[in-house]
TrEMBL record:
Keywords: Cytoplasm, GTP-binding, Nucleotide-binding, Protein biosynthesis
Entry's Gene Ontology BP terms: regulation of translational termination
Gene from which this protein is expressed: prfC
Parts forming coiled coils: none
UniProt main location, coarse: cytoplasm
Key word Cytoplasm present: yes
Subcellular location: Cytoplasm
GO cellular component: cytosol
Function text: Increases the formation of ribosomal termination complexes and stimulates activities of RF-1 and RF-2. It binds guanine nucleotides and has strong preference for UGA stop codons. It may interact directly with the ribosome. The stimulation of RF-1 and RF-2 is significantly reduced by GTP and GDP, but not by GMP.
InterPro entries (alphabetical): EF-G-like_DII (IPR053905), EFG_III/V (IPR035647), G_TR_CS (IPR031157), P-loop_NTPase (IPR027417), PrfC (IPR004548), RF3_C (IPR032090), RF3_dom_3_sf (IPR038467), RF3_GTP-bd (IPR041732)
Annotated ranges, domain Tr-type G: 7-276
Protein name per its UniProtKB record: Peptide chain release factor 3
């Protein structure tokens, strides 16, 4: 028997390529859930502006009102937790880590642009963990791609089977609405940004004469033909395949016009998984175990210099989390208790007395936590699933104020613990290399080192483009590659050896020359 508090929780993230409509959809969900009353409440945490100061301003606001990182609300008797992910691609690592803390995702795709680069990368991460995915094709009020072509594109580029649960009638200026295949309903489209209901016409089947009252004969014929084909090609939704992450139900709509949202939300609530089990190095941990366990997937620095504390975001995996109870920090081998844990409902954060699997609580932290840390009631356990991915840009740190070396060291360590970037060290000389997925992070690091730690640094570009984590059955092989390729070798934050390659060619050459060494593209490989 699963505890009802666990059963009612649905913890997920909405992901998309920037501008596909993630923020709009999040906001509409909160409106439907009654968590907010007006549009415009959800902050667009985007930094598409090129200036760092703009970005820092946004981060500052976010740092202070961390509430937007998790948005919880009740809907149809369920507790929904939406985990926010940054839109800017330079912060993709943060998104990847957040994906380790959810039980499913909704992927938003722009009907005009189709599958974009960022969509593909995010899906790759979902595939690594078999996270169940529902796809929402947005912006049907615009002239987009042909629906069948779009479904093909989703299948081919995202490497997942799809199953449409609704079907659009026309698009752009001629967008009439969608036919809900499962419920046999015609939902008529009326552009309206303020209302949250849409006219729904219930029919018996596609031959129902009622349909011809609302659709032109040509529209009806196209719909009937399309759906005959859909039935033949895609069939019915297989729930098990969805839960295994192999099949994605697809919905169509227009987030800005509140169209298709209720349908999406209702289906999500009925089919999305509640917390189940999670893999630790030692064993599988089931959500309904009695003892509490959880892990930190995100650390949010408070950029306000008057409040230097950080908030560690803890995903609860099993048992019940309680305020003021001692928990065991497995990495530090230390007991900690939390007197002010917070939880997040819509845009407010409030003190939490207890929390359940699927919930995310914010723990005020003065430096105890690193991303990936596990808390238990005493058991030695380390949750898996927060890998580091290879950065794409590597730069060497140059200390610009020798009197502040200590501050620089501390700042770099803390910022990399927060997951802002990855730190590698190269010998001889303890050269510090910072790896990121975007230029913006270097500016953020320079700014934060100066403002929070009083340290000055600059970055010298390196030619490396890729890191691979090295393992071998025999340590001798690792020592050999370290000796013979020392220009390319560094250690990561945990002291593991890493091969830094300029391009695929150098990487392949090294693989050929050291056949007994395994090269891994993420830091998690067991
Ligand atoms: P995000 O970057 O994925 O969070 O995207 P946003 O939610 O900020 O949306 C990006 C832009 O697309 C904004 O200007 C929205 O107003 C617009 N948008 C969102 N949904 C729709 C839609 O259904 N139709 C149209 N035409 N525009 C939309």
């Amino acid at each position: 028997m699963v505890h009802p508090e666990i059963e009612k929780r649905k913890t997920f993230a909405i992901i998309s390529h920037p501008d596909a409509g993630k923020t709009t959809l999040t906001e509409k969900f909160l409106l439907f859930g009654g968590a907010i009353n007006t549009a415009g409440t959800v902050k667009r945490n985007k930094a598409n502006q090129s200036s760092t100061s703009d970005f820092m301003e946004i981060e500052k606001q976010r740092g202070i009102s961390v509430a937007t990182s998790v948005m919880g609300f009740e809907y149809n008797g369920k507790r929904i937790n939406i985990l926010d992910t940054p839109g800017h691609k330079d912060f993709a690592e943060d998104t990847y880590r957040t994906l380790s803390a959810v039980d499913s995702v909704i992927l938003v795709v722009d009907s005009v642009k189709g599958v974009e680069e960022q969509t593909q990368k995010l899906m790759d991460v979902c595939r690594m963990r078999n996270t169940p995915v529902i796809i929402f094709v947005n912006k049907l009020d615009r002239e987009g791609k042909d629906t069948f072509d779009l479904l093909d594109e989703l299948e081919n580029n995202l490497n997942i089977s799809v199953c449409p649960l609704s079907w659009p009638i026309g698009q752009g200026h001629n967008f009439k609405g969608v036919y809900n295949i499962f419920d046999k309903q015609l939902n008529l489209f009326k552009p309206d940004k303020s209302k949250i209901t849409e006219p729904v016409i219930q029919v018996n089947d596609l031959e129902d004469p009622l349909l011809s009252k609302f659709l032109q004969p040509k529209e009806l014929k196209t719909l009937q033909d399309d759906l005959e084909l859909v039935d033949g090609v895609y069939g019915k939704l297989d729930n098990d395949l969805y839960l295994e992450g192999l099949l994605a139900p697809v919905f169509f709509g227009s987030a800005i016009n509140n169209f298709g949202i209720r349908e999406l939300l209702d289906t999500f609530v009925s089919i999305a998984p509640s917390p189940k089990s999670r893999e630790a190095n030692e064993r599988m941990v089931m959500a309904n175990e009695k003892n509490f366990t959880g892990f930190v997937f995100k650390i949010h620095a408070n950029l306000d210099p008057n409040h230097r504390d950080r908030i560690a975001f803890l995903r609860i995996c099993s048992g019940k989390f309680e305020r003021n109870k001692f928990y065991y920090h497995t990495r530090l081998n230390k007991k900690l208790k939390f007197s002010n844990p917070v939880d997040f409902m819509a845009n407010e954060k409030s003190l939490v007395e207890e929390a359940w699997p699927g919930d995310v609580v914010g723990l005020y932290d003065s430096g105890n936590f690193k991303i990936g840390d596990t808390l238990t009631e005493g058991e030695e356990l380390q949750f898996k699933g927060i890998p580091s991915f290879s950065p794409e840009i590597f730069k060497e740190v140059e200390n610009r104020d020798p009197l502040k070396s200590k501050q620089l060291e501390k700042g770099l360590q803390q910022l990399t613990e927060e997951g802002v970037a990855q730190l590698f060290v190269q010998q001889p000389g303890n050269r510090k290399i910072i790896g990121t997925v975007g230029e913006l992070q270097y500016e953020v690091i320079v700014f934060r080192l100066q403002h929070e730690y009083g340290a000055k640094c600059a970055f010298r570009p390196l030619t490396f483009r890729k890191s691979s984590w090295l393992t071998s059955k025999d340590k001798k092989n690792i020592n050999e590659i370290i000796q013979r390729r020392h220009h390319h070798i560094a250690t990561d934050k945990d002291g593991n050896p890493v091969f830094l390659a300029d391009n695929d060619w150098t990487l392949n050459l090294a693989k050929r020359d050291f056949p007994n060494v395994e090269f891994h593209s993420t830091s998690e490989f067991n």
